[in-house]
Amino acid sequence: MTENRMSVTRELTGEGLEIRGRLPPGLCGTLYRNGPNPRVPDGDAHWFLGEGMVHAVTLGPGGASYRNRWVVPAGQVRLLGKANTNIIRHGGRMMALEEAHAPVMFDPSSPGATGPMPTAWHVGMAPFTAHPKHDPRTGELVFFGYAADGPWSNVIRCGTLAPSGRLTWETRIRAPFCSMIHDMAVTPDHVLLPVLALVGRADRTDRSGFGFAWQPELGGRLALLRRGGDGREVRWFDAPPGYAFHIVNAWEEGGRLFLDLLVYDEPPLFPRGDGGHGSCGSVRPQRWSVPLDGRGEARVAGLPDVTGEFPRIDERFAGSRHTRFYLASRAPGRAGGFHAITRMDAESGQGDQFDFGTDASVSEPVFVPRAPDAARDEGWLLAVAWRPDWRTSRLAVFDAGHIADGPVASVILPQRVPDGFHGNFIPDAHPGRGIA
Description:
The protein is mainly β and 436 residues long. Helix content is 1%, strand content 40%. The protein has one helix at residues 77-80; strands spanning 13-14, 19-21, 29-36, 52-60, 63-70, 86-90, 93-97, 104-106, 114-116, 133-134, 141-145, 155-161, 167-174, 185-186, 190-195, 198-200, 212-214, 221-226, 235-238, 247-253, 256-264, 283-291, 299-302, 308-312, 324-329, 340-345, 351-355, 361-362, 366-369, 379-386, 393-399, 409-412, 422-427. The protein starts with 12 loop residues before the first strand and ends in a 9-residue tail after the last strand.
């Protein structure tokens, strides 16, 4: 286990944090980050399976503050799940997410205030992706969940929550096998699900409950479904080779659905189907596309070469063609975590990068627009970084158009923030108010 994947054991609240540089005056709100943080460290357990812990950094005219809390109290983990992958807000509620369980309602201002989502939302107890997609045009939340009819089942559930949280569409798709589908592609009219060959089976479940292995001989499939449609109308395509955890964005153009994604030759952190050890997995951006009328094949195009993960865009424009995307990155050919923040231009291939040093660990960069009506990609990038010589973590704030210039501000956090997965910035409707 790398040093920055080790758990932290204290739940802290820190006010008046040291700030190096100058926080942008309009940057008011809270960055929430979620990730696995086992209460009882177990070196043999899979990294993905630690209990979720949320780290929140609030920024505003009054300075910066920090708070961290386990998402689920120890006695409720079996009931609610680990909720360790993402945290979003929808319908006025914070939702902690992981793909194997239903969303968990999370109140970061009240320790232990967690529980199932309200029954009026009709999310049920079925698995719910950690990567639902907000439609910036309608305010809807589009979601899916694999193994929807029970562990290792091949049924995928798709649906939509209205801005209020009410369920407005739900259907089911029967896939060729139980695939670990971590992310989805959503456009204004369609959903595309990558049913790739990271396959779950009960007969190879280890003691931690994980039973996924890489079986490329089964081939991958792409499921294209009209939003609001019946799952029996799904159109299937043979997927290009490889595996993807994360999709950058998707859009429709010229009768095709395009999606940019980060593709591994084989998924890291998982065994092969024959029981052998998988590789560390080289990863590269690609552009896949499928015909909307179902007549034809999936196509692959290359994108600028960068080794990275956790991609984000200016999500006010999700579902339309993007140019820039942002990601955590590392030096080519280097294994392990990510130590740099990179902005890539998908059309020109030009990039802009800030490297914290090869011994550093950097989180997913979150884009925050400079203002609600700012031009596309005009804003800030927020990322949590750690280095051994710092002995703690920092929240780095970059001008999204000038990454190589380094952070315009760094907030010194009161403790180390372990490597995690995903998070989001929630703007403050009342600038100056800290974490409750």
